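so my prof wants the structure for this chain in the tokens format not the other one, which i didnt know existed until like an hour ago. anyway here's the sequence
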Amino acid sequence: MILIGLGSNISGAGFNTSEEVLEAALNMLINNDIDLLERSPWYRSAPIPASDQPWFVNGVAMIRTGLPAVALLEALHRVEGKFGRVRVRRNESRTLDLDLLAYDNQIAQDPDGLVLPHPRLQERAFVLQPLADLAPAWRHPITGLTAAEMLDLLPPGQVVERLT
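here's what i got, hopefully its the right format
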């Protein structure tokens, strides 16, 4: 099971809303040797860490591809670039954020590149809630916990509201 996290908190690239940006990004992925199997509902979430930037729209997609994990991550970064994403500093506003959350049960720890599963997915309600909706049986390959179990372990305070 290959899982991608999607997020946006500013429109752009010719789109009026973050939801439009995310839908267009999914369509662009389909044109890059990636099959969309299913996606979660969209959720609205506060920025983490807390700041005055706009709230995000987030979701999770389940895909299939013949690309190896490193090539898939590169493809995700190319798509982000086509939507104007420039990585300047961590946790900044962005038109598009595509994260490779999990690639089957692979575990990778390259600090300068591929890290699988995503190193902070278990800390983020905006990832865990849509992931629990999409793939309730998925288990973190290191902890063995499901998304719902990890969501229950989060401290209170992360606001995630379902949009669609």
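also thought this was worth mentioning. The chain has one domain: 2-162.
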